Amino acid sequence: MTLFAFMLRRTLAAAPMVVLMIVVNFLLLKAVPGDLVDVMAGESGIATVEQMADLRARFGLDRSALDQFQAYLSQLLRFDLGFSFRYSRPIADLVLERLPATALLVTVAVLAAVAVGVAAGVLAGRRPGGRFDRTVSVLSSLIFAMPSFWIGLVGIVLFAVHLRWLPIGGYATVGAPGAGWPHAVDVAAHLVLPAATLGLGYAALYARVTRAAVIETSRLDFVRTARAKGISETRVTLRHILRNALLPVVTLSGLKLGSMLGGAVVVETVFSWPGLGRLAFEAVADRDVNLLLSLFLCNSLLVIVMGILVDVSYAALDLRIEVTS
Amino acid sequence: MKANNPLIVVRDLSIAFAGAKAVDGLSFTVAAGEVTALVGESGSGKTVSGLSIAGLAPPEARITGRVTLAGADILGRTPRERRLAGHPAVSMVFQDPQAALNPVLTIGEQIVEAVRADGRTGARAAAARALELLDLVRIPEPGRRFSEYPHRLSGGMRQRVVIALALAASPVALVADEPTTALDVTIQAQILQLLIRLKDELGMALLLITHDLGVVAEAADRVLLMRDGRLLEDRGVRDFFDGPRHPYGRALLAARPGRRTRRGPRPRLADTSAPCLIGGEGSGAC
Questions:
Q1: How many CA atoms lie within 13 A of A43 on its CB side?
Q2: Torsion angles phi and psi, residue B49, rounded to 5
Q3: Do B79 and A225 touch (CB under 8 A)?
Q4: Most buried residue, A43, A198, A297, B83, by CB count within 10 Å?
Q5: From CA B234, how far away is CA A253, in angstroms rounded?
Q6: Which residue in B has a C-alpha nearest to residue A225's C-alpha?
């Protein structure tokens, strides 16, 4: 079976799941008390009952839930994500506008977390019980125990307020050049704290998983065979132990990447990062159901895509696993 | 076979794990061109003795004593340290060929790595040498096997690959730890013969670790009998089978299947009638 056929098959198998997610997401959001009109009326402070009824009629919020669901479905079938009355813009535009910032944040966070976590896990797993292993173990426990918004706030206080090494928040300095190298450096400086905050917990997790996998793999016979060849310990570790220990790490990274948007909601809010996470946070506060439905859908699709990619990367890492039905 | 100059000399070898002695004062010699069988039951210390001679004992093992290879002290040195010190190689053939090969690397990649461990051989020369080694261990179609992964090979083929890996360092001695135990009976004889032929062709010493007295009778020139970490007997193979001096050796020989017991010969499988399993009696299937 070719790779393409495998991916097609997996995509088709995911279709019922997507439908189920659409239904559940819709029911979930309809169960939340309050709607966009309540929020808008509260903000303006002078809305009458008639005005609110008028707004609900204009937004389609006066129709029955079933009617609304039908309308939502027929929209989706036309690949139309709908319209956000809060922003008075098509949702597809909003999502596409915010997507690059989140993609940048999540990608950098994941890559850094995998690099740091795997390196720490390998070094710790090579000498279980050693000084480095104990340090990693204590640090990862600490990181697990700290909520990411708190890590972010401490990072801001320490690196942005006291030391003044890094900007407090935002995507780029206001009024700075919007293109070229200075812009890239500016964005990178703004990216350091949010990406570190988002990635730290994952790095701790990858370090733990890698450590366990390295210890487990080190005991296998083929590692002794590799050592018998008279090659260096570095080569034994990288080529024989790590290569075999990576499978669980890949599983975890792939699945976690799909769920990183959840973490991005917190981090983007703390650092005023203009991405999908903050959009989602604001959409919840605004009861912007149309927008939230689309964000949920995007996130669900991301999780499914990551699952398929993880399966494909297995086959690349371990040739015993073939992409067949 | 005459006892020529010993290649490997083991003197007073003791190995302990967390205080428990696995090997206690082991002394013997292995001569080039000879098959020396190290015999004993599980836990007798034969495998860990072989591992420490090959430089592959686990790091937590506390090893004392002296092992020399052609006069050079090699005990406690890893294969890499021995190579860097310029000592000739003692290679190991492992018990379980399935576990001894890295599942995610091709046969070729693994042998080439072993060949190139000397740091002098180029990629192309190493590939040629790897094919040569596959040919030497009688693997059919070495060119095709070269790019295959271990799981595509049969158990016997895998053990041939493990032997090829062991030969990559051009060793002067092979330590074979139960090389046939994990294999089908029909394959066992082939692998044993291959090892003996390679020993003759390459002039190596072969230390054959086994608990199978059939293998010993077929292959060994000398027998070292171990129990509880001590050496009980060190005899020529004919002497050993004619009448071991130690009571444990005598008990071991008497325990072999196919011997006469006090009640007369054991019933042989071929003499017993098979129960009728298919179709029941009278169906004509029996």
A1: 10
A2: -65, -45
A3: no
A4: A198
A5: 57
A6: B100
CATH number of the CATH domain containing A101: 1.10.3720.10
CB A101 within 8 A of CB A198: no
The number of folded domains in chain A is 1
Residue A174 clears pLDDT 50, i.e. is over it: yes
Whether residue A119 is contained in a domain is answered as yes
pTM equals 0.79
For residue A221, the chain B residue with the least C-alpha distance is: B100
Tell me how close the Cα of B168 comes to any Cα of chain A, in angstroms: 8
Closest CA to B91 of B137, B142, B24, B157: B137
Looking at residue B280, what is its pLDDT? Answer: 41
Which band of pLDDT confidence, cut at 50, 70 and 90, is reported for residue B282?
very low
| pLDDT reading at B2 higher than 50 | no
The Cα of B111 is separated from the nearest Cα of chain A by a number of Å equal to 9
- Residues in chain B with CB shorter than 8 Å from the CB of A232 are 80
B103 to A318: CB separation less than 8 angstroms, yes or no: yes
Q: Which range of residues forms the domain containing residue A270?
A: 91-317
| pLDDT higher than threshold 80 for residue A161 | yes
Query: Which of A222, A240, A322 should one mutate to test binding to chain B, selecting the residue with the greatest count of B CBs within 10 A?
Result: A222
Mean pLDDT of B58-69: 91
Domains (range + CATH), chain B: 6-254 (3.40.50.300)
In a domain, A187, yes or no: yes
Here the ipTM equals: 0.81
